[in-house]
Design brief:
The structure holds 2 protein chains of 2 kinds. By secondary structure, chain A is of the alpha/beta class. Chain A is 48% helix and 15% strand. The longest helix of chain B has 20 residues. The chains are: A alpha/beta, B alpha/beta.
Chain lengths: 968, 255
């Protein structure tokens, strides 16, 4: 064992264990990410573990449940197998129980766990017996451990029972020990990922005694059990296995192999590779490899090489291959598919490139017909990759059932069957070539050249046919015809089929062989070329897609692009439903117009011509899909796991549903319709990988988008905070100055000073107080506007307002304050309306007018103009005062910019006014700018979004109705 | 002018003598109360003062003032409740004083039955102007109790409800049906501020915000039509963010 790690310190272990608190451990190895966050806190899984039926697991579970219930926890019995053991059955009393789901099966009814009932009951703890049970058809999930996973994800803790023989990795070990092959299995990840495992142990003798007393099985079954499974040797072995597995589990939990804990990182990581095949014995190899992976804490890869012959395997072996692939996945392998003709070369290449340290293979089957020529896989591997350690797992049965159909003979027969020649074009080519050879032959004769050259000509012709046609038939036919023609036309005696010279026979045979061989070679070369072109296109598409996904501007674009990618790469119809706040929203649908033909045709679309055939249609529900499909989508959104066709959950659905999820939440659900009888589907490992990869990319892009938006919001909030802080800092200072003068003047007026005698002076002081007070009022209004703006988060209550109304209000307010200027309004289009917050906009205009009043000499005119400018309404306040220098124009809207005013009134330069104006106008969606006025002065111009939604209903041709008037 | 004149004016009685107008001032802040009462006094109006809502209702019912000045920020009762209580037995003009720059409280008060509003800080001139407008209105109404209800006159504007025609300075003005409805509504409530909501409810029958742009447009065109004939007929005032009001004019018209 390559241990190059040291045991972590107790503190590190503690930290690690805290990390793996209940709620953080994934249940299945298939889960692409850890659930948590947006899902409710995960329930805890407690397994009562035993080595055989009857040790008392269910009993222990029920006893513990009673204790928990007494302590006040909410316990419910989800499903407990009806036991013939009366003590166990008695324990069911007193516990809340969920009625089972009754499903018809053949001519019986079977009881299954009703997941929905438990979910709606929401107990703290649910008891579910027999974790390894396979559900009957009609249940949502195929296996009970998937039901349990659902419950855990919903936050319900589950207690369950399982026997050691049900563990996947130990399956063949148990089979070897006891001779019994257990069908119902639970992935090891479930067992290892459980939060608590309680070993229920019993001495084997006691167990057998119990059995004899009839406490485990009914009488009739006792004898059989004793004879088969419950042999003492078996029981002892199983017990040991169970104990060892418990010990292993403790080790595995304390020292995680992933690079999670800092000190447990290792320097040299082992990487174990196995090869997948369609043979049933492959399963054993996979399980052994999985055990090795656990032992070495290694990376696990399962490789499958797709070549010509693989495509011609029987349906049965393809099915076995799929099962083996799924098994490998369940055991934690990464599945890799390669294309190539020569399997050992591919394996060796991959092994070298990926840093594989150990290869696990099954011993090549012996027997079968014809006897295998050449070297076995193992020998070839040894040749190609001598530095690699190869482990050979012997077969329990050699040349099992499936293999017969894969012998080279049957494969060849299948090839021949599949290439029956029916193409007119290829026959035409054959005929053409042969006639060319024949005419060349005649030419040769007339030139008095020997016959052998004619033979050569025919051979050339046959060669040409083999190259230009596909399938061996044409070549064979051409060679026979060629030979016949040669014999008939050119071999003495001419124009007859008899042959005098026997040498020609060998010539004929040679020609035949040449044609067969050539056609085989060219066929293979052609398919190879086609496959690598497809592969190249595939990769190119993936790269391009990744780029396109990153470039998509908003969430809808991302989803549309992802739907397009799913549909294009997998040749299916894709609909993606975004999930917001846990609810499914209408989906974006993409159906690729073309059938899933050759990739090369699609390449033509990619190259240049834009996708005119593709349409992205926003569809809520495709009319062909029912409400059930939507229910599956919602299930996927809630649980974050794939479901639908080709999966273990809700497999009866028409489409396959894949969640697009980040670590913590499901962002969208992709529904893929692989139309039936299509090669690609979720059941196929290569397609599944592709689907998961695409889903992952889409999830990343979506997450990036959402995070970006959240960031923007946070940035906006931060800016607001800064604004508020700035304002708060400057308020006291700017309030103090006018207040000082008010206090002072008022004190004088109150008569404490002899200065107050003169009535003129008194009037002056009073006026000064009034002015200062007005200034303060203006400032307070500005501050109020600012707080109002902030309170509403810079989103305003916008209503359509006539600019005329707003402008005249602003003018009234300004006139009240300082009537020494002339305010003129020019609004040519009196019905000009814009969406605005009236009060804030009045404030803006008042600010602008005040500014104009302040900085221009008395008596001059200030113009306000409003006009329509496309979708905008433009308002300009123009004065003919001294104007604003270019330098200042850049800063004038900055907060607290104190302009160097000629009047020298430093205190008038709080500068809040213009900065506030800009904030308000921008919050409306417009902007404000300052220009020079001719011949001098400044023009402040702002834009607002125009309201054009009103119809022109004011025709005044109709007279008013005589009798209608409303009484108030 | 003596305060608290013993002469009680019943609203529906025709007045031969001009009685001094009595204003009920409801304001909890002493300084503002003093300011207002001093102003009233200096302009020859008698007044009553109350500092809480309860006092206000009691005073209103006991002494029947001509106009009520009501501060909305009273400590014990919500201004809207006071208005509703008072409106149960009298149509005395109520002018509300609001300290907030938000319009919501004014709109609520107007919808509950107030006639006009002032925003603090207000100038004394504004206060007097509004008071005068309110007093004009009640004087007109008291004086014209028996007059023909089917004719409305306000300065140069004349509406004949029976005939359904409108004239300004004698010249007939053609209005679209909606404009006419609006004008009538304003006329019936001359001197009162009508909130957007009230107008929408009365004329359109619903308060959907989609109708707001139309309301604005109709008001603008209505005003244009009236002013086209007589520029002095600027009796329709827009209160930005709150509503509209037709002011009672005396020749020469005051703002």
């Amino acid at each position: 064992m390559a241990d190059s790690y040291s045991r972590p310190s107790p503190d590190a272990l503690l930290a690690q264990l805290r990390q793996t608190e209940p709620g953080n451990t994934p249940l299945t190895a298939n889960a692409a990410a850890r659930p948590g966050g947006a899902f409710p806190p995960r329930g805890t899984l407690k397994i009562f573990f035993g080595y055989a039926a009857g040790v008392g697991k269910t009993y222990a579970m029920l006893r513990a449940a009673h204790t928990a219930a007494e302590q006040g926890q909410n316990v419910a019995v989800g499903y407990v197998e009806p036991h013939p053991r009366p003590e166990t059955a008695a324990l069911l009393d007193g516990l809340k129980s969920v009625p089972p789901l009754v499903l018809p099966y053949r001519n019986m009814s079977l009881n299954e766990l009703d997941v929905d009932a438990v979910l709606s009951l929401r107990p703290e703890i649910a008891l579910v017996d027999e974790l390894a049970h396979s559900n009957t058809e009609g249940c949502r999930n195929r296996k009970r451990y998937q039901d349990v996973e659902e419950l855990l994800q919903a936050g319900i803790s589950v207690w369950t029972t399982v026997n050691v023989q049900h563990l996947e990795s130990l399956n063949d070990v148990v089979a070897a020990m006891t001779g019994v092959m257990v069908r119902e299995r639970v992935p090891d990840s479930v067992f290892d990922g459980a939060d608590h495992v309680e070993l229920v142990d019993l001495e084997p003798d006691e167990l057998m005694a119990r059995l004899r007393r009839g406490k485990i099985y009914a009488e009739s079954q006792v004898q059989r059990a004793l004879g088969h499974f419950f042999l003492p040797a078996n029981l002892i072995a199983l017990r040991e296995l169970a104990l060892r597995r418990m010990a292993d589990r403790i080790n595995r939990r304390a020292l995680p192999a992933d690079s999670n804990g800092g000190e447990a990182k290792r320097q040299i990581k082992e990487h174990i590779l196995i090869c997948l095949s369609g043979a049933p014995s492959n399963a054993r190899v996979i399980r052994t490899a999985a055990r090795m992976v656990e032992a070495f804490h290694a990376d696990f890869t399962a490789l499958f090489v797709q070549n010509e012959s693989a495509n011609r395997n029987s349906a049965k072996s393809r099915k076995t291959l799929r099962e083996n692939t799924r098994l490998a996945e369940d055991l934690g392998a990464a599945i890799v598919t390669l294309q190539g003709e020569d399997i050992p070369t591919q394996i060796a290449e991959y092994a070298r490139l990926s840093g594989v340290s150990k290869i696990v293979v099954g011993r090549s089957p012996t027997g079968g017909w014809p006897p295998r020529r050449g070297k076995t896989l193992v020998e070839r591997l040894a040749e190609l990759a001598p530095e690699m350690e190869t482990y050979i797992i012997p077969d329990a049965k050699t040349a099992g059932d499936g293999l017969q159909n894969n012998s080279p003979m049957s494969a060849a027969l299948r090839t021949l069957r599949s290439t029956i020649p029916l193409s007119w074009r290829q026959w035409a080519i054959t005929a053409l070539l042969l006639s060319v050879c024949t005419s060349a032959g005649f030419l040769t004769i007339s030139l008095d050249m020997p016959n052998s050259s004619i033979a050569g000509l025919y051979m050339l012709g046959v060669l040409g046919v083999s190259i230009l046609t596909s399938g061996p038939w044409y070549g064979v036919a051409a060679s026979i015809a060629g030979v016949a023609l040669f014999d008939f036309l050119f071999v003495a005696p001419r124009f007859s089929f008899t042959v005098y010279d026997v040498d020609y026979l060998s010539l004929f045979i040679a020609t035949l062989m040449v044609s067969v061989v050539t056609s085989a070679i060219t066929t293979r070369a052609r398919s190879q070329a086609r496959r690598s072109a497809a592969r190249a296109l595939h990769t190119e598409l993936l790269l391009g897609n990744s780029r396109r996904l990153q470039k998509a501007a908003n969430e809808e674009d991302i989803l549309a692009e992802a739907a397009r990618q799913f549909s294009t790469l997998l040749a299916c119809e894709a609909t993606i439903y975004p999930v917001r706040n846990g609810r499914l929203e209408p989906g974006i649908n993409f159906s690729h117009g073309m059938n899933a033909g050759s990739y090369l045709e699609k390449k033509a679309l990619v190259d240049g011509k834009k996708r005119r055939d593709d349409r992205a249609v926003s569809a809520d529900k495709s009319p062909t899909y029912g409400k059930d499909e939507r229910a599956v989508a919602e299930w996927v959104a809630k649980n974050g796991r794939p479901a639908g066709a080709g999966t273990d959950s809700l497999p009866g659905a028409q489409r396959s549903f894949v969640p697009i999820r980040s670590q913590t939440e499901v962002l969208a659900v992709a529904a893929l319709d692989f139309h039936a009888n299509h090669p690609g589907s979720l059941a196929d490992a290569a397609s599944k990988n592709l689907v998961l990869a695409l889903a992952g990319e889409c999830a990343m892009a979506l997450e990036k988008e959402r995070l970006g938006r959240a960031n923007a919001q946070i940035a906006a909030q931060a800016q607001q905070e800064k604004l508020r802080a700035d304002v708060l800092r400057s308020i006291p200072h700017d309030l103090r100055t006018p207040l000082t003068s008010i206090c002072g003047n008022a004190a004088i007026l109150a008569g404490r000073d002899s200065l107050a005698e003169n009535p003129e002076q008194r009037a002056q002081l009073a006026t000064a107080i009034e002015e200062d007070a007005r200034y303060l009022v203006g400032m307070v209004e500005n501050l109020l506007a600012l707080t109002r703006l902030e309170q509403q988060g810079f989103t305003l209550r916008l209503e359509p307002e006539l600019l005329e109304d707003v402008i005249s209000e602003a003018m009234n307010i300004t006139n009240r304050r300082a009537a020494r200027h002339v305010l003129l309004a020019e609004i040519p289009d009196t019905l000009l309306m814009a969406r605005m917050d009236a009060r804030l906009m009045v404030q803006v205009l008042v600010n602008l007018l005040d500014n104009a009043v302040k900085y221009t000499p008395e008596g001059t005119a200030i113009h306000i103009r409003a006009l329509a400018d496309g979708p905008w309404a433009r308002v300009a306040v123009a004065d003919d005062g001294p104007g604003i220098s270019n330098e200042e124009k850049n800063h004038i809207f900055d907060m607290f910019h104190a302009a160097a005013v000629k009047k020298g009134d430093g205190r008038r330069g709080m500068g809040l006014g213009l900065a506030l104006c800009r904030s308000i106008v921008r919050a409306h969606g417009g902007d404000i700018q300052v220009f020079d006025n001719t011949p001098h002065g400044a023009v402040f111009s702002l834009t607002l979004p125009r309201e054009t939604g009103y119809g022109e209903q004011t025709t005044d041709s109709a007279p008013p109705l005589a009798t209608e008037h409303k009484q108030e | 002018m003596p305060h608290n004149s013993p002469f009680q004016a019943a609203p529906h009685e025709q007045q031969a003598i001009e009685t001094p107008e009595r204003i009920l001032v409801v304001e909890d802040d002493k300084a503002i109360r003093t300011l207002v009462t001093a102003t009233l006094e200096s302009h020859g109006m008698s007044f009553l003062a109350a500092a809480t809502g309860r006092e206000a209702i009691a005073a209103a019912s006991a002494s029947n003032p001509d106009v009520i000045l009501l501060d909305l920020g009273l400590p014990d009762m919500d201004g809207v409740d006071i208005i509703r209580a008072v409106r149960q037995w009298t149509m005395t003009p109520i002018i509300v004083l609001s300290a907030r720059s938000e319009d919501d409280d004014k709109v609520a008060a107007l919808d509950a039955g107030a006639d006009d509003y002032l925003t603090k800080p207000f100038s004394v001139d504004e206060l007097l102007a509004r008071l005068r407008a309110a007093l004009r209105r009640i004087r007109y109404e008291r004086g014209n109790m028996n007059r023909d209800q089917s004719i409305f006159e306000n300065g140069p504007l004349r509406i004949d409800f029976a005939a359904g025609c409108v004239s300004v300075d004698g010249q007939e003005v053609r209005l679209a049906p909606m404009e006419y409805k609006l004008l009538c509504l304003l006329a019936h409530n001359a001197g009162k501020v009508l909130t957007h909501r009230t107008i929408l409810q009365a004329v359109w029958g619903s308060t959907l915000p989609q109708n707001l742009p139309s309301l604005r447009v109709f008001m603008a065109t209505l005003r244009k039509k009236l002013e086209a004939v007589s520029p002095q007929c600027s009796c329709i005032h827009t209160h930005v963010g709150v509503g509209y009001r037709m002011g009672r004019l005396e020749t020469p018209p005051e703002v």
